[in-house]
Amino acid sequence: MKAVELEKSYNPKDFEDRIYADWKDNGCFRPSSEATGKPFTIVMPPPNVTGILHMGHALNNLLQDTLIRYHRMCGRPALWVPGTDHAGIATQNVVERQLKARGLRRQDLGRERFVEETWKVKEKHHAIITKQLEKIGCSCDWSHERFTMDDGLSRAVRESFVSLYERGLIYKGNYLVNYCTHCGTALADDEVEYKNLPGKLYQVRYPHADGSGFITVATTRPETMFGDVAVAVNPADERYRELVGTMVILPLANKPIPIIADSYVDMEFGTGMVKITPAHDPNDWEIGKRHGLEMVNILNPDGTLNENVPEAYRSMDVLTARKAVVKDLEAGMFLIGKKEHNHDVGHCYRCSTVIEPYLSEQWFVSMEQMARKALDAWQDGKLSFYAKRWENTYSHWLGNIRDWCISRQLWWGHRIPVWYCDSCGHMMVERDDPSECMACKSKDIHQDTDVLDTWFSSWLWPFSTLGWPDDTDDLARFFPTSTLVTGYDIIFFWVSRMIMASLEFLDDVPFSDIYITGLVRDKMGRKMSKSLGNGIDPLEVVDQYGADAMKFTLCYMAAQGQDILIDMESFKLGSRFANKMWNATRFLLMNLEGRKLVELQEDSLQVMDRWMYHQLNEAAAKVATAIESYRFNDAAQTIYDVFWNDFCDWYVEATKHSLFSKDDAQRDRQVSVMLDLLASLMRLMHPFVSFITEEIYQKLPNTTGRVIDAPYPRHSENRSYPEAKAIVDAMQEFVRGIRSLRSELQIPPERKLHVVFRPDSGFVATQFIESHVELISSFIGASDLDIDENHASEVGKTVPVAGLGFEAFVFVRDAIDVDSELKRIESDLVKTEKSLEGTLKKLSNAQFLANAKSEAVDKEKGKQAEFEEKLEKGRKHLALLRTLQE
RNA sequence: GGGGGGUUAGCUCAGUGGGAGAGCUCCUGCCUUACAAGCAGGCUGUCGUGGGUUCAAAUCCCUCACCCCCCA
Questions:
Q1: Cis bond leading into A387, ω under 30°?
Q2: Among chain A residues 389 through 448, which have CB within 7 angstroms of nucleic chain B?
């Protein structure tokens, strides 16, 4: 073989793009048609098409990538469906902002041209987000890519709307909804974010209609008084019992309204009298319904006051009106006080405008029945959340569900498939666009102007992307999907609704496992946000450290159920690891010159080889367990340890001797084993560090094809070598003991030591050390290493080192400071004595012996022997050193 | 008001019933030709507080404190 030259340092830019293109162009991301296992499917949570990939997306998608690569290598047909979401409000906002920059409003273009314009923007942004997903290495099947407004998905949306309508689960009605005056649309309850803000609590006098004085109500929103239809008191409130049923006069409007009794009223709050504004407050809405009160809407859709308020206030926006009303109340002596008051104010989750409760005609999905089914599916064990505690969130939300407002007064989105006849008023809910009224045959029909909530298309995602409502092969093969990876912020919006839709339309859960990722935060624990400027751009991480470094670092830090706190520096972890992989490979490949691959026989494996196979085998078992229980950090830590600590620090170092020996057969054998191990390690690590493992794998002379397609290492009894493990463990203890002594005594590396190794009889590594004197000597920097079971320590010349099953004596009399050495051993002895004491206490406890598991008792006994041996040797060495003190 | 989470080394965090861990930082010594993005060695803990269960608690239960999130 020829030596292979690798660049001196790891430079991911040299190969990441090339490798991605190679994978993509060669269909590596498509589910294998040969794989016979049970399909493994993930649908990617579709990012907002006009959004930009942020760290949360990176985490989320890289974990999906890890899963899909693992299962693909395990031989399952693996499908990862990518796609994007049309994000109604957000996208419309983006386009409107662009128009505004040109001095235009969407109304200037008209609906049709505006939508055309939006499609153009969508196309442009789509390329960006796709490119970003590729850049970070997502191995999703682009041939399956979908967009929520594709023809197919649009058909799914329409089918689901019409069929729910037919089942009586969709209805239209005049209700109080959350309305964003900036976006000009209704929002669902869970699209409102509440922020606690300082405000004022105004105390306002309403005169009795009979002129007998005043009552006082407290309100944070005096401008809504024109929508007041009553004043309520608690029926149990003795102070006001007499007043119930009498009338008061609404100031400024001069309108009489009744005093009513309702137990909703909190007697302690304010004056215990509440103005009731059913059209502008959800609680008042409920009260209004209970008491059959009129609903007086005082707002226009743009948030200004309408004709239901006195003329002076019309066309004012809410805040202006509030000031004007307060001023006029003051002037009329109606305002008798105001105080600071913090309260929760709803804001639009897309634009942060204050939400107005607004009475309007909207479409709703009736949720109770579907929620029941979704709850049952969970209770029947068909769904598992990781971490499990999210199941509480899920079940709690479903148990307290409210109907879902799905109409949006936007132009961008799926238009509601409902038509109205302008001649006879007939309403049609149709799968195919009608051309005439089905009742009166009039051609004079128009479609509902509203569009559907974007989530009304995303909730179909796990099956609409696979071809539903058609009976497709994809649907048969890949549905239900396996795992959903998403953030906890959309358990309500999306996860629960997908489960409901799936159960409703396909009578099955959409996925069985739901992995909830943590939130990516900065080092101070703050959410990454544009306004704080504390975000990290994933592409910048890729640019600086490479996609592998980013992925490995995120996996390493992704402890189940925990948020991830990172800064740019954090990615050094992954970067260093990749660099280590690069250099270990570089070393091996530069030693290939003139070597040839030999077939590896079981009996040609030496102790170190067996040990390394054993470690690799154990690691494979640990990684499999970790991944299958969604413990990404455990998996990442396992490969880190086995590659760095075992392979690089011990195995490669140990094999340098055979690699540099004169014996060609020995060298060929060693190179062949190392290449085999390295190839296996690349396969093991590929899901976590994908590009570099591919780059390295393909450079290895003992591999063919791509690592992405290679089989994943599985734990195998044939690769378990506990004897080799015991030997190497013992050897390592010896080596560490000497190294530690050398370091403590500050003996410089160039000074080679004379060491006598004295094993107890039956010590497990004696033979190994005997036959590897040269190797061990290099580990400990010895010029002479004698093995002598009967060695009698030479007082005055050596320093003793003790280990389990052996002692060693180092000829460094001149180097030691006896007093500090005594101190060191003494403090060791104290620790050991304490440990022994604890163990003896347990073993002398009859309760312990009676109740503890037998393994626990055996373990304690083992510890006792170990501590006693340590103590004995330590005391002997102490005595030995004391003779030097004189 | 209801629910959930967190509190372990200087920092960021693993660790769910039997001898306190990792990475980073820090200290010491090394450019040992794969890697100074490295090697070898080392320091550091009342596992938030107080109680309980248990032969045995960082781990299970309860109390309290502080921090964070969600819902109303």
A1: yes
A2: 389, 392-393, 396, 400
Question: What single DSSP character describes residue A312?
Answer: G
Whole-prediction pTM value? Answer: 0.89
CA atom of A192 to C1′ atom of B5, Å:
23
Q: What is the pLDDT of residues A831-843, one digit of tens each?
A: 888 888 888 888 8
| 3 state SS for A27-71 | CCCCCCCCCCCCCEEEECCCCECCCCCCHHHHHHHHHHHHHHHHH
Among candidate residues A679, A883, A818, A149, the one with its CA nearest the CA of residue A458: A149
The answer to whether strand B lies under 7 Å from the CB of residue A189 is yes
Cβ–Cβ under 8 Å, residues A356 and A177: no
d(CA A715, CA A412): 52
Q: Is the CB of A269 under 7 A from strand B?
A: no
Whether A809 and A791 have beta carbons less than 8 Å apart is answered as yes
Q: Report the pLDDT averaged over residues A405-429.
A: 89
Nucleotides of strand B lying closer than 7 angstroms to a protein CB: 3-6, 11-15, 18-19, 22-24, 28-30, 32, 34-35, 37-42, 54-56, 68, 70-72
ipTM over 0.90: yes
- Rounded-to-integer distance, Cα A686 and Cα A703, Å: 15
Tens of pLDDT, residue by residue over A12-50, are 999 999 999 999 999 999 998 887 889 999 999 998 888
Taking the C-alpha atoms of residue A264 and residue A284, their distance in angstroms, rounded to an integer, is: 9
How far apart CA A44 and CA A82 sit, in angstroms, is 5
